[in-house]
Amino acid sequence: MYITNWEEFQKAVEDLYIASPELTRYVHTFHRSDGDLVLKVTDDRTNIKYKTNQMTDLKKFINLNNVLMLKMMNKEMADEDTVIPDAVPVAVKSAIPEVKTVSSPKQTPKSKKGKKRR
Amino acid sequence: MKDLDVLAFTVELGEFYEKSKTAGTVSVTMKRMTAPRLVMTSKVKKVMPKGGELVVENPTRDDVKYPCLVRAVYRKQKISTIVQYNFILVSPDDFDRFQNAYSTIIRAYMDSLKKKDRSKKAKKVSK
């Protein structure tokens, strides 16, 4: 039941969730050594899966996590204006040596540099 | 099964990803805490998770906000957390903090995914 197109997967997931919000659960597994990300959404009756190894899908995946969690909590999207202080404690930052501290401010404004290289 | 608070969970999750660099898989599950599940949890832990009372008392209301259960497994280790809706409107609630920390962890550790293959496109441009 693997879907290969992200748009299709997203739509199928949202439909499934609307159909059975109490039973649907969302699982994702990541094999770091293989570089494989597998997403599965199921309500114990039907099953939808998506597999990828592309970094380009990462942003969409994070966005989907956000959307699904909002649905699960039955919450509306928060205002973009509300100030969310950098919630990651210092201990976490020191534990992630790979994360460049410069990268976090760059991600909030949409940088056009990456997109023009097509 | 270790039950942690939202930020401690993300820290542990980061450690799981760190450990999984050489072998093994990290899997994360998310689902809504439904009324029956909340009742079960309150019986087991003797304490109702925050936000749970509203759900249990109002089974028919549409605008009730549910807590969300998140679990992570790495080999034999299991951790879990409950993300609740905060009624204080101005301060960032559990959900915002969790999403922030969680997306940071993901971006940091899912680095073994393949980047876009540009070599073919570069060849096309040069023609």
CATH topology of the domain at 6-73 in chain A: Signal recognition particle alu RNA binding heterodimer, srp9/1
From the helix content, strand content and strand pairing of chain B, which structural class follows? alpha+beta
Radius of gyration of chain A: 17 Å
How big a fraction of the residues of chain B is strand? 15-25%
- Looking at the overall shape, the CATH architecture of the domain at 6-73 in chain A is 2-Layer Sandwich
H-E order of chain A: EHEEEHHH
Number of strands of chain B: 4
* Count of DSSP H/I helices of chain A: 4
Mean pLDDT of chain A: 75
Task: Tell me the total number of β-strands of chain A.
Answer: 4
CATH uppermost class of the domain at 6-73 in chain A: Alpha Beta
Quaternary state reads heterodimer
Helix/sheet category of chain A:
alpha+beta
Strand coverage percent of chain A: 15-25%
Largest sheet of chain B: 4 strands, mixed
Provide the spatial order of strands within the biggest beta sheet of chain B. 1-4-3-2
Organism (chain B): Thamnidium elegans
Pfam family, one (chain B): SRP14
GO molecular function, one term (chain B): endoplasmic reticulum signal peptide binding
Protein name (chain B): Signal recognition particle subunit SRP14
Write a short abstract of this structure.
Helices cover 36% and strands 19% of the residues of chain A. With 118 residues, chain A is α+β, with helices and mostly antiparallel strands. In chain B, helix 1 packs parallel to helix 4.
